[in-house]
Amino acid sequence: MIDDPRLGPVPYRADETPRSRVATRALLLAAVVVSVWYFGWLLQPSRIGTPVLYGLLVAAELFNLVQACGFWWTASRDTARRPVQPLPIRRDVDVLIPVYGEPVDVVEPTVAAATRLRGARVHVALLDDGDDPAMRALAYRHSVRYIQRHEHAGAKAGNINHALRLTDSPYVMVLDCDHVPRPEFLERTLGEFGDPRMAFVQTPQYYANAAQGGIAAAAWAQQALFFGPIARGKDELGAMFCAGTNVVFRRRALEQVEGFPEDSVTEDFKLSIRLHERGWRTAYVPEVLALGLGPQDMASYVSQQLRWSRGCLSAIGTVLRARLPLRLRLQYLLSSMFFLTGWTVLIYMTLPVVRMLTGAQPLAAATADQFLLHFAPYFCLALGAVARAGRGRYTFAGFALAATTWWVHVLSSLRALTRRPSRFVVTPKRAGSSWQPRAVWPSLVAVCVLAGSAAYALLGSRSPSALNNATFAMLHVTILLSGAAAALRPQRRRREKVAVEPTTRSLAAHGVRAS
Amino acid sequence: MVTPTITRPADTVALRPPASDAAPSVRRLVGEQVTVVAGQALSGLGNFAFLLVALRWLPARPFASLATFLALYLLVQLPASGLSAGSSLLAGARTRRTGLGVGIVGGVALAAAARWLGPVLHLSPWLLVLLAASLPTAPPLAICRGRLYGQTRPLAVTATLVVEPLVRLTAGLALLSAYGVLGGAAGVILGGDAALVVAWLAARRRNGQPAMGAPRRLPWPAVVGFLGFAVVQNQDLVFANGLLPGRAAGLFAALSTLGGIAAFATANIPLVLLPRAGSADRRGRHATVVALALVVGIGAVVVSVVAIAPVSLLAHVVGQRYVAVATIATAYLTGMALLGVARVLGARLMATGRGRVVTIVVGCAVALQATLICLAPRTVRGVALSTVFATGAMTAALGTVTVLPRPTAVASRRPLLARISWPAVAVVGLLTAGGVWLRLLITRGLWLDEASSVMQAQRSFGAMLHSLETTDVHPPGYFALLWGWVRIFGSGPLSVRMPSIILGALLVPILYFIGRDLYDRRTGIVAALFGAVSPQLVWYSQEARMYGLFMLLVTLSVWAQARALRSGSRPAWLAHGLLCAAMLWTQYFTVFVVLTQQVATLAVFASRRRRREPVRSDLGSWALAMLVCVVLTAPLVPFAVHQFDVNQSAGRGFGSPTTTARQVTQPGAGLSAYVVLANLLWAVWGYHSTATMTALGALWPAGMLLALALLGRGRSRTTQLVLAVAIVPIAAMFAMGEQKRFLFDLRYFIGCVPLFVLAGARAVTSWSRSRVGPVLLATGLTATLAVGLADQQLNGNNPRRYDFQPALTQIADVAGPGDEVVLAPQYLHPLVSYYEPQLRSVDQVADPATTVRQTAGQVHVFVLGSFFDVSGERQQIKALLSRLGRDRALVHTWRFANVRVWEFR
C-alpha cells in the first residue's frame, strides 16, 4: 500500500505560460499562413478525385481546421494571470461534496481536507445521494453536515440544488468527492469575487494519479491542454466555463439561474451558458488547488467521455440559441463541437481502406510530392503549436487515447441526433480490470480492417501508391493500438493503485486528524 | 597594503612587486610603451633607411649578402635578446660576466669556422669574421638593456635604441660607400657597439634593483623563448638565401626587409611588459592589455598601409625591381604582425610562470617553419607562406594557452579515474574498432572528386593553392591536410583516403564522449553504436574529400558550444571559436552551421537575461571566441572572394557533376518535398537504388507517426541546440537550392548527420523508462542502419557509386599503344591521370565532329562515359556515340556502376 497521491505535493503548475509570448504568436501566425497555403491548394476544383471521398476529406479537414483555428485563437490570448487581492472580510462558504456510492476511502481525504480550508468560515456538507450509512458515519467523524434526500432526481445537479436550498452562505464551493482541496484554495479564489459580476471561479481539475501512468496519465495529458493554454485563453476572453468541481460560486448568481440545470448530463456546461447569458462573469485561477483522481481504466475513461461528449453535443443547440456575444458563442461552439472529432478519425481511417480495396481516391491531379509539400508544413506547425502552447504536456499517449475512443464521439453524436435520453454516470474512482477489450472493440475492429486492407493491397502490388496507403493504414493501426493498449493488458493485480485507506501518517502529514 | 604573491614551481620566476610600488595607471603604462615604441620606431626607421640606401646602392646579390649578414647579426644577437628579456627580470653581475665570456668564445669559434661556413651560406668569410667580432658585445648590450627594462626606464631604453641607427646612417653609410658590403656590415656592428656604450652608462647611473624582485637564477624559459621568437623572425631569410636562386633570394630579402617593419616596430613592447605582467591583480592584466592593444594596432596599421596599394608602395620604397613580391607582401606582413602578438602573449606567460609552455610552443613553431620551408616550393611565395603559417599557428597556440586557466597544484586525477566506467570503455573500444573495420572495408574505387583532390595534393603547396583558387570551389583547409599526408604517406588509393578514415573513425568515440557529457552514458554508447554503423558516416569516411573532417569539426564545435553554454568555461568558448574557424577553412557551407550556432548562443543569452541571470562573463568569452574565429578566418576571405570571382567569370559558377534526390524521385522536377525527404532518408539510411528510394519515399506517413510520437517528449536546451544546428543549415541549403538547384545536396550538409545520430541516440535512450525498451529500440534501429549500410556499400545500383577504376583497367587491358580514349564528359582527366596515366585521352567537346576528327588516326577509340543523370552530359554522349558510329564499328560495350565504356574500331 502506498500513500494517497492526492495528499502529496503538486507536480504541475497550471500557470506556466510559454516563455516567449511573441514567439508563440509568431508560431500561431505561421500556422495560419501554412493553413491557407494547404487549403488554397486542396480546395482547387482540379483536386477532386472521387467526389464523395473528396467531400469527406474536405469536410474532415475543414472541421479540423476550424478546431485548430479555435485553438490558435484561444491560445493566442494565453497570458499570465495577475493575482488578485483577497477579500477584506472573512466570508461564509458552503463546501458541497456530492457523493453517490463512492468508496469511503476516496471521500474521506476530501472531507477531511475541506474542513481545513483557510481564508473563510467553512461549512462543509456531504451530499449523499447513495444513502450510504458509511457516509453518515464519515460526516459524523469529521463533524460535517450530512445531507440526504428522499428523491434522487436530477443526479448530481439535483443533489447540489437540494443542498443549496438547505444552506445559505453567500459563496458555494463544489467539490467532487475525490478532489482533495489544498488548505489555501479559498484564499486564492475568493478574491476574484471582488468583482460584483463574478459568478464563479474555476480551478484546474488535476489528476493526482497521473504519475502512475496508464489511462490516468493519458487522460491527464488531454486535461493539461484544456486547463493550460485553453482555459487560460478562455479566461482572458471571459469565456471560461464551469468544470463541475474545484469551483466556487456566488450564491446570488446560482439563484438567479435557479441552480444547476437538471436536464443535462453536463450540468456544469449548461449552467455556464445560462450565467453568461445573464451577463455574469467567470474566472479561471490557473493554480492546482485540489487534487483528484482520473479514470484508471478504459471503461472508466469511456464512461466519462461518453457523458462529456453526449452532454456537450446536446448543448450545441442551446449554444446556438443562447443570447451570447459572438466571442462567447464561438468559444462554446468550439468546445462542444470538439466531440465531433471522432468522425474525422473515422474518415481518415476509411480513405486508405477504400483506396486499397477499390482504387478510388479523394484527390486527383495531385502527386504525392505536391500533397506532401502542402500538407507537411500545415501538419508540423499545427502539432508544433499544440506542443508549444501546451508546454509539451500534451503527449502521444493522450492523442492516441483520444483517437482510440473515436467511436465514443460517433455514438454520442448519433444519440444526440436521435435525441435518445442520456443518463448521468459517475466516473468510477477505482481501477478496474486491465483486460477490457469490450471498451475498445470498435477500435479493434478498425485495426483488423486497416491491417487486412494493407495486407491485401501489398499482396496485390508493391507500387509506391500501395505502399503509401498501406503505411497510412499502419499509421492508424499503430495509433489505435497504442491508445487501446491499456485495455488489452493481461489481468494483473496492480500494487500501485490508490490506497484503500489513507494511512494515519499521510493524513497527519496533510494536517488531517483521523478520529 | 596587501602585496600579491604568486608562488610558482622552483624553476620559474617568482615575481613579487615591492610593497611601495603603487599600481601604475593605464595612462602610465601606455606612456611607457609608447615611449619605447617611438624609440623603436625611430630605430626601425633608421635601420630601414640604412637598408633602403643599401638597396639602392648595391646590386641584388650584394644586397642579399648584406641583408643576410644583418639577419645573421640579429640571429647571433638572439641569445642576447633572450638575455635582455631574462635580465629585465634579473640584475646580476655574474650573468654579465658569463655573457661576455660566452660571447668571446662564440666569436672566436665563428671566426674559425668562417672559411667553411661562408660557401654554405653564400656569404663572404670576411662577413662572418665581422659577425664574430660583434659577438662579445652582444650579451653585455642585451643585459644592460634588460636592466633598463627591469628598472622601467623607457627613456634610457629609447636612447639605446635610437643611437644604433644614428651611427649606422652616418658612419655605416660612409663605410658602405667606401668599402661596399664589408663596410656596410662594419657599420652595422658599430651601431650596436654605440648602443652598448649608451646602455652601460645609463645602467650605471642607477644601481638600484629592477622594479620587480629579482630572482636568484636567470629565467631561462624567458631567454630561450625570446631566442625562439627571434629565430622565427629571421630564419626564413637565411633559408631563402641558401635555397633560392640569386634573383629570388634578393626578392625575398626585400620582402623580409619590408616585413621587418612590422616585426621590429613591436619588438620591444613585450620587454617593457615583462616586469609589469607578473602581477596577478589587475596591474598585470592592464599592462598586458595595453601591450596587446599597441601590438595589434601597430600591426594593423602596417598591414593596412601595405595592403592598400602593395605594388606602388613597393615600387616607391624598395624599387621597381622588387614589385614582384607585392602579391605576397600583405600576407607576409600579417605573419610578422602576428609574431608581435605572439611575443606579447609569450611575455605574459613567462611573467606568470608559464615560460616552459612558451619555449615548447615557440620551439614547435621554429621546427614547423623550417619544415614547411623545406617542403614548400623553392619560391619566394613558398618561403613566405611557410613563415605566415608558422607565426599564425604559434600565435593561436599561445593565445589558447593564455586564456586557459592555470592547472591547479594537483590535478583531480583520482576522481576522474574513479568516474571511468571500464565496461563502457571496453564497449566504446569495441565499437570504435568495429567502426574502423567497417570504414576499411572499401568497396569502391576513387571517383572524380577524390581524384581531383589527389591531383591537387600532388602539386606543390603554392601551386595547389593557386589551382584551388582558380579552378576549385572549396576552401584550402582539407587540401592542406591531404597535401601534407601525401608528402609523407604517398598517394595510393588507401593512403589518400586514410585521413578521412581516421577522422571518421574518431567520430565513434567522440559521439560516445559527447553523448555521455551532454546526456548520460547510455546515450553515449548508443550514439557510438549508431555512429559506427551509420551508412553516411561510413561512406564519407571512405572518401578522399573534406566531408570526414567536416563531420568531425561540426560535432566537436557543437560539443564545445554546449559545454561553454553550460559551464561558461572560457577554454570551451575558445575551442568553439577555433573549431568554427576550422570549419570555415574546411567547407564554405559551414557558414550556416556557424551562424546557427551563434544565433542559438544569443538566444540563450537573451533567455538568461530575461530570467535575470548573469550573462556578462559568458558574453565576453563568447565575444573573444568569435574574435578568434574572425581573425583566423579573415585570411580566407580574399581567397574565397577571388575563387568566387574566377569561377563566375569562367562561367563555371559552383556547378559540379552531382546526383541528387531529384533524379531518384522526380526526374526533371525542381526542388520539392520529395527531394528533402530523399536527402533525409539518405542522411539516415544511406545511398540506395532509385527503386529502393522510391519505395522508402512512399513510406512518408511514418514521418507523421514520428512527429506525433514526439508530442510531449522532453526537450532540453542541449537537445534544442543539437537539433537547431542539425536542421537550420539544411533549411538554409534548401532555400539556396531554390536558386542553385545543385546546392541542395547531402554532401553539403553532411556535417549535420552526426548531430542527427546524437539526437537519435538521445531519443532512443529517453523514450521509455524501462531498461528493455531502449535496448530493443536501439537494436532495431541499428539493424536498419546495418541493412542500409550493406545495401549502400554492395549494391551496384547505388547512384553515388562510380566504378571508374574497373572501367579504366578494362580499357588499359584492351587498348593498344596508339589507341585513344575519349573522356565524356571532359572533366574525367584526373581519373585517367590517377589510374591509368599511360592512356592517351582526348576531351569530348561540344561538337562531336571535332572529337571524331581528333581521333581519326587511331585504330581503336574508347569512349569513357559517365554522369548520365545530368541531362546535358547524357545528350552530348549520345550525340558523340551517334557520330562515331557513322565512321566506326561499335565493337564492345562494358557497363559498370554509373560508368560505361564503348569500344569503336
Give me a quick take on this structure.
The complex is a heterodimer of chains A (515) and B (905). Chain A has helices at residues 21-42, 51-76, 104-114, 133-141, 155-166, 185-189, 214-237, 251-256, 267-277, 298-321, 326-337, 341-358, 368-389, 396-404, 406-417, 441-460, 464-484, 504-509; strands at 91-99, 120-128, 145-148, 171-174, 180-181, 198-202, 206-207, 247-250, 281-284, 290-292.
- The quaternary organization reads as heterodimer
Name the chain pair with the biggest interface and residue counts per chain: A-B, 32 and 29 residues
Strand order of the largest sheet of chain B: 2-1-3-5-4
Number of helices, counting only DSSP H or I runs of 4 residues or more of chain A = 18
Relative helix content of chain B: over 70%
Give the rounded overall mean pLDDT of chain A. Answer: 87
CA distance, first residue to last residue of chain A: 21 Å
Q: How large is the share of residues in beta strands of chain A? A: 5-15%
Determine the strand fraction of chain B and express it as a percent band: under 5%
Q: Characterize the overall form of chain B.
A: globular
Which regions of chain A are unreliable across 5 or more consecutive residues at pLDDT < 50? 494-515
Give structural notes.
The complex is a heterodimer of chains A (515) and B (905). Chain A has 18 helices and 10 strands. In chain A, the strands form 2 sheets. Chain A has a 7-stranded mixed β-sheet, with helices on both faces. Chain A has a 3-stranded mixed β-sheet with strand order 5-10-7. The C terminus of chain A is likely disordered. Chain B is mainly alpha-helical. Chain B is built from 40 helices and 5 strands. In chain B, strands 2-1-3-5-4 form a 5-stranded mixed β-sheet, sandwiched between helices. Chains A and B meet through helix 13, helix 14 and helix 17 of A and helix 31, helix 32 and helix 33 of B.
